[in-house]
Amino acid sequence: MTTVIVDYESGNLHSAQKAFERMAQETGAGAVIVTSDPETIRAAARIVLPGDGAFPACRRALYDHRGVFEAIEEAVITLARPFMGICIGMQMLATRGLEYEETAGLRLDRWHGRADHPLGPVAQGAAYGLE
Fold first, then answer.
1. Which CATH number is 98's domain given?
2. Segment (H or E) for 18
3. What is the pTM of this model?
4. Which of 4, 35, 51, 108 sits CB 3.0–4.6 Å from 44 for a disulfide?
């Protein structure tokens, strides 16, 4: 079984790769591959989307890699492959992000990020941006 860490030039790849390689070695979980190749992503048993940076910049970087989002979408939605987002990689699953500017997310999950009141009182559920 292969774990793919998606490289879209906007992530903490080295740390993620080392952590997943150690886990794979300790558990016999198979190979860990860092790639931006859509076919390799589609064929993976597990997919990890790391991220480091602002929501709008990371989303643009992901879409700049042709076919990568479509491969993630097919593997996660159609093929039901396990998926893990790290930091902004998890946040980009949302319908939209509100960091700096409103930006469409990957829409793989029905929530959105809120940046206008991170430390203030909020209504129940509002902190999670549930729609």
1. 3.40.50.880
2. helix 13-27
3. 0.81
4. 4
